[in-house]
Amino acid sequence: MLEGNRVSRISVRGFAVASATAVTAVGSVVGVASGSVAQNNNDAETTAADTTLLADIPAGQQAQVQTASLTQQADAQAIAADAGAKKDAEAAARKAAAETAIAKKVAAEKAEKAAKEAKERAETKAAASRDDVRDSSSFPTQSSYTVAQIQAMARQMVGGGQFQCFSNIVDHESSWNYKAVNASSGAYGLFQALPGSKMSSVGADWQTNPATQIKWGLNYMNSRYGSPCQAWSFWQANHWY
């Protein structure tokens, strides 16, 4: 009978070794179970046997030991999976941050390039506008001028989108009459310069040539207010300029 028991334990041990994932026990649980076996069995060989043998654990506890073992393995696998997932998430976050930084840099470079191109276009347009502006000396002298002719001169001399403001001031000051005289003050011409002789700074024909007066008026608005539109804003607030 002793020999028979020994063969049975060896067979079970072989099964345990061959099926480690199913029969390997948690140390503390197995120890307790093995201790119980040792107390109830006086067989010296059994007492000296490995404590992890399934055969050494009472039948009523074998299922619990197997469950504990599988749970431990599952926990270990879950921890490993969590660590792998965390590592993957960190790598993905670093990659996303790098891609975002690159995208922002590219967008900033595009915006800077677009702003530079817009500035260049504006400067080119402004230069073209300046080139289109005619000087007072480029208009032939006439004995008289109609309002339409004077306005046409002003359009070609003012330029830069400032004509309407310029025109508003002339409308209020002289109604485009280049020979208009204020009876009380003596102010003269399109802009009611006071005295009118100050327009001689741009041409001796200031009394008879509207182009000369336009040149003087434009210079005055630019130097005093910055532009005809700024001069018109001042005129609207004060009714003089």
Architecture overview:
There is one protein chain. The chain is mainly α and 241 residues long. Helix content is 68%, strand content 0%. It contains nine helices and no strands. The longest helix has 74 residues, at 59-132. Mean pLDDT is 77; it is low at 1-42, 44-50 and 124-131.
Question: Which labels suit this protein?
Answer:
241 residues, rod-shaped, mainly alpha, 68% helix, disordered N terminus
Taken in chain order, the helices and strands follow as: HHHHHHHHH
Query: Which structural class fits the helix and strand makeup?
Result: mainly alpha
Distance between the termini: 130 Å
Question: Outline, from the CA principal axes?
Answer: rod-shaped
Sheet-strand content, in percent, reads under 5%
Over the alpha carbons, how many angstroms does the gyration radius reach? 52 Å
Mean pLDDT: 77
| Beta strands, count | 0
Secondary structure topology:
Layout: H1 2-18, H2 20-23, H3 27-40, H4 44-48, H5 59-132, H6 147-158, H7 163-174, H8 210-225, H9 228-238
Helix pairs in contact: 6-8, 7-9, 8-9
At a glance:
This protein is mainly α. The chain has helices spanning 2-18, 20-23, 27-40, 44-48, 59-132, 147-158, 163-174, 210-225, 228-238.
